């Protein structure tokens, strides 16, 4: 899941429109997610993992990686978007994983009772879309089998794609976009049903759910300049999305800078620059059920 909304005056998310961006983003970070899955395999021996829930699976990039990392497991992609689940199903089948990957349409928190037991619950940037995160973690703990593990992907570092000084507009554009995103994120959280403010102390929250924290690690995705075409396309899609979503919140000069960066005819545009890169980190917090 992503932290960005898709309409000017709302914090609603249009996951179907965002699907290609989410898919490309996860694919580019696929190596980092595969390393995270391998690390979890060290914490939780793969042979003992029979059922995995991928909560907020989106288009299923990580669902497929989890199925590959845990070859004895049934993996269930859980999401509220039928369109994204359709993509997850197609991806699993294309990778020869269709027999072990299934999809489950569920609106959480109401749908927790329908998820069934699991040896591993992976929640990738999805918990922050639930108003009462503490209650959600307690529900996760209730679904885990003895010895099972929760892997929570929350936090890390915002992506970076541009040098500080791009030669267009004021230097530091991405830092200012981060500030606008942070403001939006707070509004999104406040607007969720049963929203409760929590300190993002994930170890403490996992422990409060009756689980034993078993390690936190961050996984880096580093694609240096010059980037391959697929990464350039993802960067263009990312900034196009930022313009659509954040445009009205930005200072006029920053909005103008975004327009120029996205203009294929502009010599310094994202379409032509040789200094684009993709650098981000995802943090995975784990906890075990005794």
For the record, give the distance between the C-alpha atoms at the N and C termini, rounded to a whole number: 29 Å
- Which percent band covers the strand fraction? 15-25%
CATH architecture term: 3-Layer(aba) Sandwich
| CATH-defined superfamily | Vaccinia Virus protein VP39
Mean pLDDT: 93
Order of helices and strands: HHEHEHEEHEHHEHHE
**CATH class, please?**
Alpha Beta
Classify the fold: give the CATH topology: Rossmann fold
Biggest sheet record = 7 strands, mixed
The largest sheet has its strands arranged as 3-2-1-4-5-7-6
* Overall strand count: 7
- By secondary-structure content and strand pairing, the structural class works out as alpha/beta
Number of domains: 1
Give a verbal description of the structure.
The chain contains 9 helices and 7 strands, in the order ααβαβαββαβααβααβ. With 290 residues, the protein is α/β, with parallel strands linked by helices. It has a single domain, classed as Vaccinia Virus protein VP39 (Rossmann fold, 3-Layer(aba) Sandwich). The chain has a 7-stranded mixed β-sheet with strand order 3-2-1-4-5-7-6.
Question: What would the keywords be for this entry?
Answer:
7 strands, 290 residues, disordered N terminus, 7-stranded mixed sheet, Rossmann fold
What is this entry, summarized?
This protein is an alpha/beta fold. It has helices at residues 15-28, 30-43, 61-69, 82-94, 133-143, 173-190, 202-208, 229-246, 252-261, and strands at 51-55, 74-79, 101-105, 118-124, 144-160, 212-223, 278-288.
